Every structure is written in C-alpha cells, then in structure tokens.
Amino acid sequence: MTVVSTTERPNAATEAERHGPRSAALRTLLRNRLARTALAFLALLLLTAVLAPLFAPADPNAQDLLMRLRPPAWQSGGSGAHPLGTDQLGRDMLSRVVYGTRVSLLVGAGAAVLAGVVGTVVGLAAGFFGGWLDRVLMRLADIQLAFPPILLALAIVGFLGSGLWYVILVLGFTGWVSYARVVRSEVLSLRSRDFITEARAIGVTDGAIMRRHLLPNVMAPLATIATLHVAAAIVAEASLSYLGLGVPKETVTWGSMLADGQLYLGTSWWVAVFPGVALMLTSLAINITGDALRDVADPKAYRR
User: Fold this and answer.
1) At what angle do helices 254-261 and 93-129 cross, to 10 degrees?
2) Does 62 have pLDDT greater than 80?
3) pTM for this structure?
4) CATH code at 226?
5) Whole-number mean pLDDT of the chain?
6) In which domain, by residue range, is 43 found?
7) Contact criterion met (CB below 8 Å) for 240 and 151
8) What value does the mean pLDDT take over residues 258-282?
9) pLDDT of residue 26
10) What is the average per-residue pLDDT within 41-54?
11) Is residue 86 part of a domain?
C-alpha cells in the first residue's frame, strides 16, 4: 500500500476541484506576472479614458500658434504646461493622447462586442442545426475571408462616409467570421453529448438548449477571441484614421495624430512618437492579456 504524506502540497488539479474552476482560473491568471502587468496597464488606461478631463491639462483641440511644436518638458525649450510638448497647431500633446484613448477603447470594445454577438449567433445556428443552413453560413464566411479585412473596411467606410459609429459598425461586421468558426466547431463537438440528448428528450426547446447549455460552454474561447479582436480593431481604426477615412478630423484619435506627425518626424519627433507609443503599448497589453486568457481557458493549464 502506498502512503501519501498529508503534508504534500495539493496539485493544481486538486485546487481546481476544491475551489472551483473559476477561482482556479483566476489564480492561474494572476500567477502570470506579465499578465498582471498588462491588466494593471489596461486598468490605468480605462481609468484615463473615463476620467480624461481630469488627466488632460488642456482642451485637446485648443490651438495656440505661438506655442506650436514645443518640445516635451524635459528638453530644452519645453514647458511644464505641456509635459509632452505641442503639435504643429500648438495643441497639447498629452491632452490629445489622453482623449485619443477614449476613441480607441470605444472602437475596440464596440467592434468586439458587435462582432462577437453576430459571430456567436451564426456559429450557434450553423453548428447546432447543420445541413443547408450550415453550408450557407459557412460559405458566406468563406466569401468574406477572401477579402483582406482592412481593404473591405476601407471600401465600406469609403462608401458610407466617416464617423465613429460607422467605423465601429464596419469593424464589427468585418470581424464576425473568427467568432462564428470557433463557436461552430465547439457546438459540433457538444451537440452529440449526453446532456444535450437528455435535454431534447425531456422537451427542452432548441433555443433553450443553445442559450442554457451550449452558450456557457463556448464563453471561454469567445473571451479570448474578443480580447485579441479589441487590439486588432484599435489598430484598424488607427489605420483608417491615418488614411483620413476613420472618425472626423475634429475627433482626437491616435491614427490621425500619427498622420499629422509624419511630416515632422525629422524635426519634431514627439508629434508622432507619443501617439505611436500609446497605440503600441495598448495593443501589446491587450494581446498579452488575450494570450493569458487562452492559457487559462485550456484545461491543461491547471495541471502544469
């Protein structure tokens, strides 16, 4: 007989069984130092977006040509009133970067939610009902995948016109395919399971089965895809704004700031560098969080 010492530390699987999968997943996520740093940065970013008037030292669109192209405060000629300097129209760079956070997070979250809702509905219907509906929906997905997302977004925005909500709609409706494919594959593996068969046997409707039994089982991969899609949507919005096809010029965005600053890279680097750094760090933090969520969603993660 093998005797197991009671002083042995329980493994991750035992902890998951004792405390539940949610608490085990949270502990797995928080043990990742890089993920903790990314989450802290995203929390600060969200706080900055919500409280932008408190963090911004000036009106982001207020012009002062006498203060144009002033360097950051730590360089010669800089001013403490403009910690990150000013742009070609004398607008405060820190204020513009802070207010640009609002637009980027709103576009990223809005596009991810819209694409997630559309893709989840399509994936559930295709995977659960199968047959001709599955074939039609998946062929529509294949047709959309044939077009590069940014080119499709450019064409639609060029046709509809610029505007914040137009950009969210376009990025949402061009990003549903990845959600639909993942949900469909999960539903195909779940629909023949015993709990689905038993639910049908006792008369549970198809809608209730999809809502109560299938949807909760696909939320983990959906959360991972949504997180990564937020970063992709933020970059796509910046690309559209850089090309002048995103939100209106009077709305501060990191992409439009990059477009304005490209002409001054040789003389006034801060006009383009600061919004570029903000865009890079935000996308990096979101992608790191998405990778961590993917590891947590993997059942094998608890046994490492």
Assistant:
1) 130
2) yes
3) 0.80
4) 1.10.3720.10
5) 82
6) 21-50+98-303
7) no
8) 89
9) 65
10) 90
11) no
